[in-house]
Amino acid sequence: MPILNAIVHRIEKAGEAPARLLPASAPLPASDALEAMLEALTRAYHAKSKAWGHFADTAMEADAAQGEDDTGRSPLAAEIGDYLAEQRDFVALTRPLAERLARLLDDHLSASGDLLVLDTRFGGARFLTLALLHHREGFAIDDALQPVPTRQLNLTQMSLAARLDVSQWQAGDSRQYLSWTRERGGKALAEGFAALLGAVEGVDAPGETRTLLKAFSDYVEKEDLAEDASREKTETLVDYASDQASRGEPITLEELSELLDEQQPRAFYEHIRNADYGLSPEIPPDRKTLNRFKRFTGRAGGVSISFDSHLLGSSVEYDEAGDRLIIKQVPKQLKEQLKSGS
């Protein structure tokens, strides 16, 4: 992943004292260490819980973002636009951002950190990534084979980070080109960070992922698939969605449909469109929702049962004391078979 520009600004924050910015005067030189750190940072970022959306670009959205300038646009979006048009250099782009982030720390977070900002290119796409990195105390072994204390970057504690897909933003055909971390337990901090970015949430990743899984469950039921086929398609969906999540890329409905059925590559896609689930063509996957999705299956005494885990407690109930499984919504095809066989 070629690095076009990279810089680190340090923000020192101790107790109740105001945050102090130690700005860099020039971008970082290229190095193998920087490339390796980018790879580790990317993996850590993809594993984070995130919001997805876009820069505020209307007066109403700007009011919601609370980070607008007099034009109703995100200040950061305007600054990045100047940088891409070569009207502002990388230092002049990132220093105001670091100053605003220092003020955010004063209001919501008593912690020092290094603001890393990277402009990178991957294939035909371009990304701008920013992350506030914290340190932790650790140990290393020196040349004399003695343990020595050392400070290490703690990527897992990355509470403030964002990633802009510059290519999608410039193309103007997406409303989810911007993602940012949204950690639990820090609502005020998360809202302040979104305001700093001038960002508006454009898609509910957990909700969209749940709707996709519901659409898949309906599809499996409609097709009346055998247990083995149902399990295989479930694994295909989860594997594909998890892989997209690990790479920080969206689930593409048409691509998923092709993977689910090579003989009828548009079957699942048409099922979604015909039933009008309201899903976007591309969905940012939510890893936590995916991890909770599985199918319960069992076979005994000529009875075979298979259903998705999210149906337990709603359409399907398990009575442990009575050793009974209660199905509240009998599938239409099964209902017709029961009627004809009675």
Automatic annotation (TrEMBL):
Keywords: Cytoplasm
Keyword Cytoplasm on entry: yes
InterPro entries per the UniProt record, alphabetical: Nucleoid_associated_NdpA (IPR007358)
UniProt keyword annotation of Disulfide bond present: no
Subcellular localization(s) per the UniProt record: Cytoplasm, Nucleoid
First-listed, main subcellular location of the protein, grouped into a coarse class: cytoplasm
Annotated GO CC locations: bacterial nucleoid
Origin: domain of life: Bacteria
GO molecular function: double-stranded DNA binding; single-stranded RNA binding
Record family assignment: Belongs to the YejK family.
Protein name: Nucleoid-associated protein
Source organism (scientific name): Halomonas shengliensis
